[in-house]
Amino acid sequence: MNTRRTFRTLNTELWILVALAAVSVAIVVGVGMYPMNVPFTALSVPLVLGALLLGPRPMVWLLVFLIVLLVIAQMQQPTSTPRLIAAMVVLIALCFVALIINLRRSSLGIGLRRGESMLVDLRDRILAQATIPKLPHSWLVESALSSAGGSPFAGDFVVATKRADGRRLEVAVVDVSGKGEAAGTRALQLSGAMGGLIGALPPSEFLPAANDYLLQRDWEEGFATAVHLSLDLVTGEYEVRTAGHPPPVHRLAGSGRWHAIRSEGPVLGLIDGVSYDPVRGRLTSGDVLLLYTDGMVEEPRRDIDLGIDEMLGVAEHLFRNSFDGLAERLVAKVGSRDDDRALLLVHRR
């Protein structure tokens, strides 16, 4: 099937190459017959279309062909004015720029359009990991992600699943080293691994397994922080384990007060053979639990506790309106715009 698909792709690119070459020849013929009405700069059209539609190898042939046609078109001009010469030089320069860009992406073996579609697919896969499974009506669980600089790729991500019996919800909020596009590829690989581990292993083994996975990768920046929540959807009892991560916060509906869940554990990917001890608690009706990454609370030259206080103050203000969409609203208002941000909200109605 892969061979058939590859042949189909090559056949399509061949037809595109032939069509662009034919258009280019028609432009040069038009320049020769009507030099005052058909500008040879029209050759930039097949150049741009080729850059968008062709892979590296056929693009090289098109560029060589266009340069030859540019020389022919220039020879057909009745006079060589400085403006025509300048336009000729600019077009040839654009061909060489396109050639350099083409050679740089030749290691992937795909064209620009397909490369962009692959990046979109990778982004969608990261976001799909954060999809919260269907829960009983008595529970509201929302996640929100925002990357540094507004890029769709981030080093923060959420993975969530329900146990086979449907009684327990397993969620992890993870912050991979780096931010934005630089951390996006590592986040994709790690989110896929964690998405498989979180539903397959007992809660006590999830973070140790993720730690082992990162140690085996041997990345240059191969570490991450994480918080793992294992929640009983019937009783509201939960276990929280953290790996070098900011502490989750629990709001008691009765008193309206927040308290941090102080769970200690080493960062993932640095130390071999570590264990992560849980902190246990219980969510009663009206309670709220927030899990978040450091981008929500950390800023240069500011203590993290002050950042947590600011986040909770904004959260209290937003609670007055509605819990629905609160995660997105809180991420939009709190945290550093120069860092990735992720937030998970758990509310028992």
What does this structure look like?
The chain is an alpha+beta fold and 349 residues long. It contains nine helices and ten strands. The longest helix has 32 residues, at 2-33. The protein starts with a helix and ends with a strand. It has helices at residues 2-33, 44-53, 56-75, 82-104, 112-129, 180-200, 203-217, 304-319, 326-333; strands at residues 139-146, 156-162, 168-176, 224-232, 237-243, 249-251, 258-260, 279-282, 288-292, 341-348. The protein is 47% helix and 18% strand. It folds into two domains: 2-110, no CATH class; 127-348, 4-Layer Sandwich (Phosphatase 2c, domain 1). Strands 1-10-9-6-7 form a five-stranded antiparallel beta sheet, with helices on one face. Strands 2-3-4-5-8 form a five-stranded antiparallel beta sheet.
Labels describing this entry:
10 strands, 5-stranded antiparallel β-sheet, elongated, hydrolase, alpha+beta, 2 domains, 349 residues, Phosphatase 2c, domain 1
Residue windows where pLDDT falls under 50 for at least 5 positions: none
Write the H/E string, N to C.
Answer: HHHHHEEEHHEEEEEEHHE
- CATH class group of the largest domain: Alpha Beta
CATH topology of the largest domain: Phosphatase 2c, domain 1
Helix content: 40-55%
Question: What would you say the CATH architecture of the largest domain is?
Answer: 4-Layer Sandwich
CATH homologous superfamily classification of the largest domain: PPM-type phosphatase domain
Number of helices: 9
Keywords: Hydrolase, Membrane, Transmembrane, Transmembrane helix
GO molecular function: phosphatase activity
Protein name: Serine/threonine-protein phosphatase
Pfam family, one: SpoIIE
